[in-house]
Structure formats: structure tokens, C-alpha cells
Q: What sequence folds into this?
């Protein structure tokens, strides 16, 4: 109040001083009245108050009567023209001061509304990039500090908070939480806080819907894979079981009629089909352990030549009609590994090379050192991998045909198991085209354990 009073006195003093100066140059009372009218307008602008504008008009009238009407230095006015002039001046000054004050107030309100609108736009824009509930909460706290100037907390759920100012965070599905302020906010900031709560509610609702949609997608994917696994197991078991049943029945019913060579062939068929079933079950169990995070490595220093030898011995039956060329390094290469699992990787790669190529295909197994890592490469000169499954080659159930057909194409688990085992050893596996045609699968594992 004292500040506005000093402003009014200063403006009126300036108007009076200028009026006294211009009167010396013969300027009439009508022009002097305009000088005081300007003073009233300046007072209204500086004080931004209708009351101070009216007060300055009254003060200007008194000063004009005292200094510029006859008789001078009194509050008496004998000239009728001066009275009319003063009456018009007082009314004009009050109206002009009021209008100016209101216009100033409206301009300030418009400016404040513009800032509020910009703030609300920034708040809405800020939540667009939020991903995850924690990110939404962090952005909300930062905005509360930046745009309201106070700190607070965002409490999810309906937990009651006592002794603090809180605002509900609502969404279409109901109460999402509360915005709790650490201190009282200014009245003009309430609209910003409410807008912040609205955007928080929308963002939290969006994250909730995204989470629910992802859960539904995961459940559907899990059900799809379960159905595919059951269907694939039923198919893959049918062929070897049929062969076992046929060979067993033939041996049982015609044992005496069969020659030794025929009985030997049937026994070999039984053995091969049994090994196939064992490999199938091993892959299923291996993927189950990997999916449930039960893959435990029993590492120890192993010579890679021994592991390769074990894998080749296990897959000898596959190369009766195919050729296998093995290239081992001259030096002895060792690495910390789970020998059984690495052998399983090599077995799966060799089986893939045979099962997905024609009879008589040349398969090459190469082992070499590469910058502190042991590299194992399995290549063939078949038709290679179709473009449509390359992007998901190391995923579960990645097969050349989605439809189940007769033949041993496998469950599509082999490469997924290989990838999981190799990565558990801190290594990597990749696919490349063989030149001029065929496929090359290479995996690498470090020669030294990075965890030591």
C-alpha cells in the first residue's frame, strides 16, 4: 500500500510541476487539466488499482483548485466555467483511470492464462515420451518442481496421507493415486497442479493398459508355443515310434525266418530310432531348463579336440550317406567350458546340417583360434537357410515349414538351445551363407573365463 501511495504522490508531483512550468508560458487551464488527466492514467498503470486511480483523480482536482483557479491557494472556486471544467475532469479522470486499471488487469490475466496454457501444453507433451510407471512418476515430480515451484511425492493406490495437501490422480478407470505436496501452493498454481494430476492419470492409465496388453500377448505367445510344442512332439515321436514298433514286430513275428544280416539291420534301425528319441528328449529337457533359468554350467578346462571327438562319435550314424570333413588345429586349444553342453551344441549343428540337406551333402567341421576365442564352424553345401526365417533363426520353433509334414525336421529347438548355451559361456553364435551355396554356423567361446 505504501509503495502505491508513493507512486501516486510522485506522479501527481510531476504533473503539478510540469503544469506550473507550462503556465508560465501562457498555457490555459484546459491544457493543464489534460496534464493532470495524464497523471491519473499513469497512476492507474503504475499501481494497477482502480482505487488508487480514483484517489489520484480526487487529489488532482484538489491540487488544480488550490493552484490554478481563482482565488489561488484556497479551495474556493468562484468561476462557473472552472467548476464545470473540474466536474468534467473529475468524472473523466475516474472513468479513464478505472478503464485503464481494468485493462491492465485484463492484460495481466491474459498473460497469466497464456503462461498457464503453455505450461499445460508442456506438461501434456512431457508425458508422451514417458515409458514405464517409474518414468511417469519421475517426470511428474520434475514437472511439479519446475512449473509449480514446490516438491512433492506421487503415491499410487489409495494409501491415506495425513497432515499434507493432496490432489487425487484420476483416470477413466478410477483413482490411480495421489499427488502429495510438501508445502502449500499458491492459489494461481492450483489449475496447473490439477492439469498435472489429469495428465498423470492419463499416463498411468496408458502404462497400465500397455502392461495388460503385454501380459495378454505373452500369455497368447506362451499358449501358442505350448500348442506348437505339443503338436511338434506328437509328430516327431510318431515316426521313430512307428519305426520301433514295426522293427520290433518284424523281429518278434519272423525272427526264425530272417537271416542274420536282416536281424542285424532291424536291430540297427531300433538303435538309431532310440538314439533319435533320446536326442529329442534331451533337446526338450534342455530348452525347458533354459526357459526356466535352470541352466547350470559345470565349467572346467577342456581340450576342444576331445569335445569335438565326443560329438562326432555321437553323430556317426548320421554320416552313412553324407560326408563329414573335420579340420582341427595343429596346436592344442583349451577353454573353461561345460564339455557336455558344448558337445550338445556341436551335435545339434551337425544334425541340422544333415537333416536340412540332401543325401550325399558334404558337411565340414572346422575348429580354429580367433583373437583369444575358440571358434567352431559347421558348414554344408546344401540350399542354405530361406530368407523368411533368417530373422528368427535362433528363436524357438524356427523351422523351414510352419506346417507339420512327414519327415524328421525336428522341433526347431536346436539352434535356440545352441544360442542359449553359447551365450551362457560368454560367447556368440552366428549364421552366414556358404559359397557358392549352403550354410555356415559358427560359434565362439572365450579361452579364458571373464568372470575370474
A:
Amino acid at each position: 500500500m505504501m509503495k502505491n501511495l508513493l507512486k501516486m504522490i510522485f506522479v501527481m508531483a510531476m504533473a503539478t510541476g510540469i503544469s506550473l512550468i507550462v503556465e508560465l508560458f501562457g498555457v490555459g487551464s484546459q491544457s493543464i487539466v489534460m496534464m493532470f488527466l495524464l497523471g491519473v492514467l499513469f497512476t492507474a498503470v503504475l499501481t494497477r488499482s482502480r482505487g488508487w486511480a480514483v484517489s489520484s483523480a480526487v487529489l488532482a482536482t484538489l491540487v488544480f483548485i488550490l493552484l490554478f483557479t481563482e482565488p489561488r491557494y484556497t479551495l474556493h472556486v468562484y468561476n462557473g466555467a472552472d467548476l464545470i471544467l473540474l466536474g468534467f475532469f473529475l468524472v473523466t479522470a475516474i472513468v479513464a483511470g478505472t478503464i485503464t486499471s481494468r485493462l491492465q488487469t485484463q492484460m495481466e490475466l491474459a498473460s497469466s492464462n497464456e503462461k498457464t496454457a503453455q505450461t499445460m501444453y508442456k506438461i501434456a507433451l512431457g508425458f508422451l515420451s514417458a515409458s514405464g510407471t517409474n518414468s511417469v512418476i519421475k517426470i511428474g515430480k520434475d514437472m511439479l518442481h519446475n512449473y509449480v515451484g514446490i516438491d512433492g511425492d506421487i503415491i499410487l493406490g489409495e494409501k491415506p496421507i495425513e497432515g499434507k495437501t493432496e490432489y487425487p490422480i484420476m483416470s477413466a478407470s478410477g483413482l490411480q493415486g495421489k499427488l502429495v505436496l510438501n508445502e502449500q501452493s499458491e492459489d494461481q498454481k492450483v489449475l496447473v497442479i490439477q492439469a498435472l494430476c489429469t495428465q498423470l492419470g492419463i499416463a498411468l492409465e496408458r502404462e497400465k493398459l500397455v502392461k495388460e496388453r503385454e501380459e495378454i500377448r505373452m500369455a497368447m505367445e506362451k499358449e501358442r508355443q505350448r500348442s506348437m510344442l505339443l503338436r511338434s512332439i506328437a509328430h516327431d515321436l510318431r515316426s521313430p515310434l512307428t519305426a520301433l514298433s514295426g522293427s520290433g514286430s518284424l523281429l518278434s513275428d519272423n525272427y526264425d525266418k530272417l537271416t542274420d544280416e536282416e536281424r542285424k539291420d532291424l536291430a540297427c534301425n531300433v538303435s538309431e530310432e532310440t538314439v533319435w528319441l533320446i536326442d529329442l528328449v534331451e533337446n526338450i529337457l534342455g530348452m525347458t531348463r533354459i526357459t526356466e533359468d535352470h541352466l547350470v554350467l559345470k565349467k572346467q578346462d577342456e581340450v576342444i579336440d576331445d569335445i569335438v571327438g565326443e560329438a562326432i562319435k555321437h553323430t556317426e550314424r548320421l554320416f552313412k550317406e553324407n560326408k563329414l570333413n573335420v579340420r582341427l588345429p595343429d596346436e592344442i586349444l583349451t577353454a573353461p567350458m561345460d564339455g557336455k553342453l558344448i558337445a550338445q551344441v556341436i551335435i545339434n549343428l551337425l544334425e541340422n546340417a544333415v537333416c536340412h540337406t540332401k543325401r550325399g551333402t558334404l558337411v565340414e567341421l572346422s575348429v580354429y583360434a580367433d583373437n583369444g576365442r575358440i571358434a567352431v564352424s559347421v558348414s554344408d553345401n546344401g540350399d542354405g537357410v530361406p530368407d523368411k526365417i533368417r530373422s528368427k533363426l535362433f528363436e524357438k520353433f524356427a523351422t523351414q515349414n510352419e506346417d507339420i509334414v512327414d519327415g524328421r525336421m525336428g522341433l526347431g529347438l536346436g539352434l535356440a538351445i545352441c544360442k542359449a548355451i553359447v551365450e551362457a559361456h560368454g560367447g556368440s553364435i552366428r549364421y552366414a551363407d556358404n559359397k557358392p551355396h549352403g550354410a555356415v554356423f559358427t560359434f565362439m567361446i572365450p579361452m579364458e573365463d571373464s568372470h575370474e
